[in-house]
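Exercise 7. Given the encoded structure of a 336-residue chain, write a plausible sequence.
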């Protein structure tokens, strides 16, 4: 019942946000010609689809680098296929199964008894994303520092706030690393034996110790994966730049790279279905402030970037259905 309510609420929020975005615009006159331009400007459309695939490819590479620290014989093609199928669940997730859940379940079936290392590797995979987004955002902001005073007060406040958010997230990451150290946990057990010795808390401490051990083992791989992650995010953000150009919009690559970390963070919040509405509103507002991109163009560009990534989500869905069909058909063949 709770899941149904969550899905219904997100559907309503997506519908309301999209209605607010399209209010005051003529859908036929303002948006239809720009989305039809995806066919006219086919070079940018193909480039956007290619960037979306490159993002998926580098995401799989990033995760594979970390996974091989625990599962050395895992083929890259398996990770890539899993990543593409997970794109389907990321796009279509309405509360049933998300991309991360699919990735853990899929590889756990292939690698029995490896659920914990796979889950920890996925956590590390996301942490590299935080590091790379922080790096990209800071570099792009420094590159645009000379034009800082040309921005509106609202935009400056937003960028400062987002920088503080990233800095706080990194601080929590460092604090968690220190807190998970076995020596500190042992000290806590000696100092507070009654509290730390509670059966439930003891189990959590044991898992924390195991997680820290995996982190300590894979930190070099995590740094390597962070470099790949920087390219992955750049490719994903560039798919939206291609979407902007495909619908006839004009803005610098730097403006899009500055806006997209905030757009992606807003879209990842569990407020709507696949970030619809939230992504478009944030993208439109930021590009309007950074590059004076008209509202209708900004919304169309965001939808185009989403469509490019949706394309690979559909491909992933086809791969998933094909694999399920094969799994069902094989026993029948054997019986025959």
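Solution.
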């Amino acid at each position: 019942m709770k899941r149904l309510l969550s899905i219904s609420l997100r559907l309503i929020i997506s519908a309301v946000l999209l209605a607010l975005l399209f209010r005051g615009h003529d859908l036929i006159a303002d948006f239809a010609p720009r989305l039809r331009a995806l066919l006219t400007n086919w070079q940018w459309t193909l480039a956007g689809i290619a960037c979306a695939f490159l993002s998926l490819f580098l995401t799989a590479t990033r995760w594979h680098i970390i996974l091989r620290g625990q599962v050395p014989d895992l083929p890259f093609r398996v990770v890539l296929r899993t990543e593409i199928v997970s794109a389907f669940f990321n796009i279509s997730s309405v509360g049933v199964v998300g991309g991360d859940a699919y990735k853990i379940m899929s590889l756990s079936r292939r690698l029995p008894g490896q659920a914990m290392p796979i889950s920890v590797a996925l956590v590390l995979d996301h942490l590299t994303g935080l590091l790379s987004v922080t790096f990209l955002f800071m570099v792009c902001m420094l590159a645009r520092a000379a034009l800082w005073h040309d921005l509106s007060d609202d935009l400056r406040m937003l960028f400062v706030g987002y920088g503080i958010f990233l800095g706080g997230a990194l601080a929590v990451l460092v604090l968690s690393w220190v807190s998970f150290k076995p020596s500190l946990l042992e000290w806590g057990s000696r100092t507070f034996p009654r509290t730390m010795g509670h059966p439930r808390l003891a189990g959590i401490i044991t898992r924390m110790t195991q997680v820290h051990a995996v982190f300590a083992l894979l930190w070099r791989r995590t740094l390597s994966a962070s470099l790949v992650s920087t390219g992955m995010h750049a490719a994903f953000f560039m798919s939206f730049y291609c979407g902007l150009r495909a619908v006839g919009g004009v803005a610098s690559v730097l403006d899009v790279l500055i806006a997209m970390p905030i757009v992606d963070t807003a879209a990842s919040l569990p407020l709507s279905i696949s970030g619809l509405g939230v992504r478009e509103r944030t993208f439109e507002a930021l590009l309007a402030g950074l590059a004076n991109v008209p509202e209708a163009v900004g919304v169309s560009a965001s939808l185009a970037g989403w469509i490019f990534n949706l394309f690979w989500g559909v491909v992933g869905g086809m791969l998933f259905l094909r694999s399920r069909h094969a799994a069902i058909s094989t026993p029948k063949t054997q019986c025959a």
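Remark. Residues 327-336 have pLDDT under 50 and may be disordered. Students should compare their own answers with the one above.
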